[in-house]
Specification:
The protein contains twelve helices and ten strands. It is α+β, with helices and mostly antiparallel strands. Strand 7 and strand 8 form a beta hairpin. Helix 2 runs antiparallel to helix 4 and helix 6 crosses helix 9.
Length: 343
Amino acid sequence: MEALRQQLAQLRTEIEAFPVNQVADAEAFRIRFLGTKGALKSVMGEMKNVPAEQRKEAGQLLNEFKAFAESVYQAHLDRTSPTTASVGSSVDRSLPGASQPIGSRHPVTRMKNEIVSIFQKLGFAVAEGPEIEDDWHNFGALNLPAHHPARDMQDTFYVQQNPDWVLRTHTSSVQIREMEKGKLPIRMLMPGRVFRNETISARSHCFFHQVEGLYIDEQVSFADLKQTLYFFVQEMYGQDVKVRFRPSYFPFTEPSAEMDITCFICGGDGCPVCKKSGWVEILGCGMVHPNVLRNCNIDPEKYTGFAFGMGVERPAMLKYGVSDLRLFSENDVRFLRQFPAIT
């Protein structure tokens, strides 16, 4: 028993004198004294030489010594670990971290949100629908039956034929879905992405974005349509903007019109943007055709309504001075960084 006491006293001296200045030294300490082949393990092996009547006392002595050695190792580990070793260094941890660049909204998203927010002031809600549509919602219900010549106005991407499934060519399909619900009156906006099989150029693309509007109620007139759109252009382009309506044709509205505003690039004097006319077309509109109402089980003798639709990229090009529509979809960070960050 006395020999065991002497061994532990000598081992304590070695533990207290063992130099530990870094994490690697602490690991060496653990291996030397606490490892599977360490000094403490070797001393515990001497228990077999202790008389039986003294083994209880020897066991308590060894357990106390093991707790001492482990506490010394833990103190070394805490002192040399990276999280604590750097305390007191020259790094001021109270300083704010490196700032990360704040993202910005895409210019098309900015323009879409601005358009939607203006019409929301008039009580329009937002509705969305699928980008892959069946022929009925994309064409048939909108007064474009099979072989109708107006279908040639829109070069369509067909996903499947017989029956026909297409990438929607306009968000008017969402208007049909809203009317089919039968919840009247309707005052809705339909923003979204549409697809047409067109040649990609600086002024056109095979996909783009639209915002369409629909208002159906009793005694809705063309005058209501005009006043709604007058409010929109004044909110979007200013109180001094000049507006004109030109008769047009759309199979789903009658009468139909296109709306122009004074070209604010040249002030109406004529430039390449307005093709020297002094006017820029911004949207198409009209009174909902009675056939469209009937297709959605709405009585055209009781209800009337108007619809309008506009692209998003063209107004964004004018507002932000973008000369090539393709820049909106190329995801060039150098282009996107020109727009202010989100605040």
